[in-house]
Amino acid sequence: MTDWRDLELGKRPQGRWSLTADWVVVDTSQGRRLVEGGEVVIENDRVLHAGGRFDGDVAARFDMGAALIAPGFVDLDALGDLDTTLLAHDNWPSELKGRVWPQSYVDRGPYEMYSPDELVAQKRFAFGQLLLNGITSAAPIASLFYREWGETVAEFGAAADAAEEIGLRVWLGPAYRAGGMVVDEAGRLRAVFDEPRGLKGLNAAIEFARDLQGRGLVSPMLAPDRVETCTEDLMKRTMAASEDLECPVRLHMAQGQMELQTVKALHGMTAPEWLDGLGCLTQRLLAPHATVASDDDLNRYGAAGVTVVHCPLVSARHGGALRSFARLRDMGINVAMGTDTAPPDMVLNMAVGMMTCRLMDGHSSIRSGDMFDAATRAGAKALGRDDIGVLCAGSKADIAVFDMADRYMAPRIDPIQTLILGATGRVTRATIVDGRLSMRDGDVAGIDMAAMRAEMQIQFEGLVAKYPERTLGHPAVREIFPPTFPLLTGD
After folding, report:
1. What are phi and psi of 269, to 5 degrees?
2. Angle, nearest 10°, between helix axes 346-361 and 415-422?
3. Cystine design at 337: which of 144, 158, 256, 375 (Cβ 3.0–4.6 Å)?
4. Cα(317)–Cα(182) distance, rounded to whole angstroms?
5. What mean pLDDT, rounded, does the chain reach?
6. Superfamily classification of domain 73-387
7. For residues 248 and 379, what is the distance between their CA atoms, to the nearest angstrom?
8. Do 453 and 141 form a contact (C-beta atoms < 8 A)?
9. What b/e sequence results for 58-90 when a residue is b if at least 16 CB atoms lie within 10 Å of its CB, and e otherwise?
């Protein structure tokens, strides 16, 4: 056996090489199976063998010991910035806490609250965090609350370069919108629209998508922001472009009461019903989060082949839940997974997803394998791929290795169940993407994550300092985000 530390981070080893471990998850013609004492052989960007011990020659063999080798996670709502939803955890309502622009801020003119270089650095750091958690394929998401309007082609060009440099498979597209929510001085919410600006953003996104065609680890995606910020023409043109480009569209909808009430006020119906009437529900549509979807909404999703992107952690933090994973599964809806918050921990999301499903439907409604499949194969299916989210001969060498000897996860039982019961992606020992070692033992190729963590904290605190400018009444930061307990003053 060769020393694991001899592998060069960020590089694809030369020749045929293999990983062995106490457990390997493999995909066979009979279904997904668990192999004890298994081996995975990699050659270039592909898996040559996954199963029992390999009889052929390899240039190097690395024994991971008490570990689980598995297909890497597919994250269809992956955090691509610094998570502002953390500020809303104990602070609400959103229109009083800077989550909705006040009219006074709109009148003075919204502006970018981060510099272009800061935005690019955030994506680079976010990509590193995804790799730390065993995520090999991602469709990044970021907030537009702190933007002038939408995301830019320039920052996503830099993001594409970063993904290829560090080794992360991504679906990218700048977010665009035709409108947004505004709160007036009396606290009333209303939607305001600038459709020409939204169509300009769509056209830029289409050109960006065309430029990405055939670019290795990077693929195009169209990303209209949220359904209540979109117009009929914007959505029709978006879905038509997705067919032309053969790329997915991600649109957040059926995710909260503000959206539900706004869309009903604008269109007299729910968002899925409105989009269905426009012919915009298709198999290319990825729809986080479906937590307020009605039975009729879900039936429309199922009939059209829409993928629901389940993000249980961020939903549960704010009192929401999918109702339920098992129900949607039994309806034939493809349910994939997203993280959508910090930490971008897919293992924790699987754990919370299981808990919320059982709270909704009872203990026997879901098993660990259901969540693991959603975090891997279901995401690949949504993207039209059969070579990621699986581990078998011919699949892409997109692999995660999890420590099964972690001192905090004891006693160990079945490795998949132990992983989810342990409820943290911090046991991820390695992440391999396209045959490249992108992360090993907390080190990410091309990134000093500790130094970047300090840089990101400074950036985030700078953003928080600007919150009074875009909060109704412009209160001080301490009033918007009071400490959990009063600060001790004096002696």
Report:
1. -160, 175
2. 90
3. 375
4. 24
5. 96
6. Metal-dependent hydrolases (3.20.20.140)
7. 12
8. no
9. bebbbebeebbbbbbbbbbbbbbbbbbbebbee
Whether omega before 343 lies within 30 degrees of 0, making that bond cis, reads yes
Indicate the domain borders of the chain.
1-72+389-447, 73-387
User: CA 240, 245, 247 angle in degrees (round to 5)?
Assistant: 95
Q: Residue 429's closest CA among 180, 14, 67, 142? A: 67
Superfamily the domain 1-72+389-447 falls into: Urease, subunit C, domain 1 (2.30.40.10)
Do the first three CATH levels of 1-72+389-447 and 73-387 match, i.e. the same topology? no
AA letter at 319: G
Q: What's the rounded Cα separation, in Å, for the pair 460 and 456? A: 6
DSSP 253: B
Residue 196, token pair as written in the block:
């020409």
The reported pLDDT for the residue numbered 1 is 57
CA–CA distance, 276 with 256 (Å, rounded to integer): 19
Cis geometry, peptide bond prior to residue 248 (ω within 30 degrees of 0):
no
Contacting residues for 473 by C-beta, under 8 A, at least 6 apart: 96, 102
Cα 373 to Cα 38: distance, rounded to the nearest angstrom: 20
Q: Which two tokens stand for residue 81?
A: 């910035």
Residues constituting the chain: 491
For 388-431, the pLDDT digits (tens) are: 999 999 999 999 999 999 998 989 999 999 999 997 999 999 99
Contact (Cβ atoms closer than 8 angstroms) between residue 20 and residue 399: no
Alpha-helical regions (H) of 184-284: 195-212, 232-245, 257-267, 271-277
pLDDT digits (tens, 9 = 90+) for 354-398: 999 999 998 889 999 999 999 999 999 999 999 999 999 999 999
Is the pLDDT at 147 greater than 70? The verdict is: yes
pTM exceeds 0.85? yes
Please, how many CA atoms are within 13 Å of residue 458, restricted to the half-sphere of its CB?
7
Neighbour-count burial for 395-427, b at 16+ CB within 10 Å, e otherwise? bbbbbbbbbbebeebeebeebbebbbebbbbbb
